[in-house]
Amino acid sequence: MLKLAILVFILCAPTFAGTLVIGVLTANMALDSAAPILIAAALGVLAAFPASWWIARAILRNQEPRRHGA
């Protein structure tokens, strides 16, 4: 499950981080520093950890055993 969670994390982390960064940029276009952007990106990566674990668990639970020979 860890390998699948890592693969899902590779997709989720930039998606979450990018979404939050775009949200910060559209909410306040006159930012004087990069701190809010970096914080949003870090929060997106942190949010991707439990999300990727949950998604990997859901994928593995929904798999049916393969039937051989039919």
UniProtKB/TrEMBL annotation:
Keywords: Membrane, Transmembrane, Transmembrane helix. The keyword Transmembrane helix applies. This is CTP synthetase. The chain crosses the membrane at residues 33-56. The keyword Transmembrane applies. It comes from the Bacteria. It comes from Salinarimonas ramus.
